[in-house]
Structure formats: C-alpha cells, structure tokens
Backbone:
C-alpha cells in the first residue's frame, strides 16, 4: 500500500513540475533595427545644452509594437518640462523619467506605437540641459 501511495506522490510531483515548466510566459518580444540616428548638439549662450535626436526604427514582422523608447541624457541637469517628442510627425505627450536608464527619458508612444512590420521616425528634443 505504501508503495502505491509513494508512486502516486512521485507521479503527482512530476506532473506539477512539468506543468510549471511548460506554462506560458507573458513577455514582450522586441526585435527592431535602428536604421538611422542623428543627434544635434547645441551650446546655448547661457551655457546650457540643447539636444535634438532623430531615430528611425524598423520593427520586425513578428515583434510586439515599439511602445516605449528610453533616451539617455548627458547628465542629471534637465527637466522633462523642457522636452518634446513626436512619432512620424504626431506629437506624443508621455515624456517622463526613465525607470531603466539612469539620467534618461522615457517616451511613451501610446497610440503612435510603431507596429510590427512598420518603420517609424521618432524625434525628441530637450533644451536647458
């Protein structure tokens, strides 16, 4: 009787382990090419720096939409209130501190996300750095 219970227990443990291993994983698949990156740097008369970026992304056909972009800043002396951004000429309003890049800005593309198989141009500028 003990052997039967022990065998059943071992089979149950194996089934639980197998189900954990084969359970679906919810993660995003980012796969893109940065076709072009242009950075313009301007020293202003007041000693501050202004930056203007242009990024051209080609998103893979099988990837999730590119919905967030993080842009590094040269130092921590900046304010998101002095930033602006657009995707394919359409302004975006989600401009915040990046949770992933130290001294970085997070651009939330929202409804302007670059869809699978598409190419998109993201422009970002900041003054007063």
Residues:
């Amino acid at each position: 009787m003990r052997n039967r219970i022990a065998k059943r227990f071992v089979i149950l443990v194996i089934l639980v382990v197998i189900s954990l291993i084969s359970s679906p994983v919810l993660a995003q698949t980012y796969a893109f090419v940065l076709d072009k990156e242009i950075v313009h740097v301007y020293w202003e008369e007041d000693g501050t720096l202004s930056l203007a970026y242009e990024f051209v992304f080609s998103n893979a056909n099988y990837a999730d939409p590119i919905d967030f972009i993080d842009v590094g800043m040269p130092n921590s002396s900046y304010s998101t209130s002095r930033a602006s951004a657009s995707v394919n000429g359409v302004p975006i309003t989600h401009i915040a501190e990046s949770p992933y890049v130290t001294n970085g800005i997070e651009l939330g593309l929202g409804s302007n996300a670059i869809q699978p198989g598409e190419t998109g141009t993201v422009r970002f500028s900041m003054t007063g750095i």
